[in-house]
Amino acid sequence: MLNAIEPGSPLPIHRHQKSSETVVCLRGRPVWEYYDEPEHICTERIELPPNGPIVALNVPQGQWHTVKSLESGSVIMEVKDGPYEPQSPEDVLT
């Protein structure tokens, strides 16, 4: 799936309990933020520009995360290792 993300896009912190996801940046400058389980504090930020030192990353199954765009026109390719599953309310932080 391709996702286009603009700076300020509202993407909540969430997790995927039934699949991991692999992401590759095609354009722009997205940053992934990982959060811990008990307090949902950001534990890691990973920038993923298309020509940067990291060209892809895998978000493990069950990992709380979000993605933000640091540059207009950011586009990512996202691949999951299973079928699409709608997110349940317990898998999204509000």
Annotation keywords:
single chain, 94 residues, mainly beta, Jelly Rolls, four-stranded antiparallel sheet, three-stranded antiparallel sheet
Helix and strand content put the structural class at: mainly beta
The N- to C-terminal Cα distance equals 24 Å
Secondary structure: helix percent: under 10%
Q: How many domain units? A: 1
Largest sheet composition: 4 strands, antiparallel
CATH hierarchy class name = Mainly Beta
Assess the beta-strand content as a share of residues.
35-45%
CATH architecture: Sandwich
CATH topology: Jelly Rolls
How would you classify the quaternary structure? single chain
Order of helices and strands: EEEEEEE
DSSP strand count:
7
Strand order of the largest sheet: 1-7-2-5
- Rounded average pLDDT: 93
Instruction: Give the number of helices.
Output: 0
- The CATH superfamily label reads Jelly Rolls
Low-pLDDT residue intervals, each spanning 5 or more residues: none
Query: What form results from the Cα inertia axes?
Result: globular
Give me the Rg, rounded: 13 Å
Write structural notes for this entry.
- By secondary structure, this protein is mainly beta.
- The protein has one domain (2-82): Sandwich (Jelly Rolls), CATH 2.60.120.10.
- 0% of the residues lie in helices and 43% in strands.
- The strands form 2 sheets. Strands 1-7-2-5 form a 4-stranded antiparallel β-sheet, with no helix packed on it. Strands 4-3-6 form a 3-stranded antiparallel β-sheet, with no helix packed on it.
- It starts with a strand and ends in a 14-residue tail after the last strand.
- The mean pLDDT is 93.
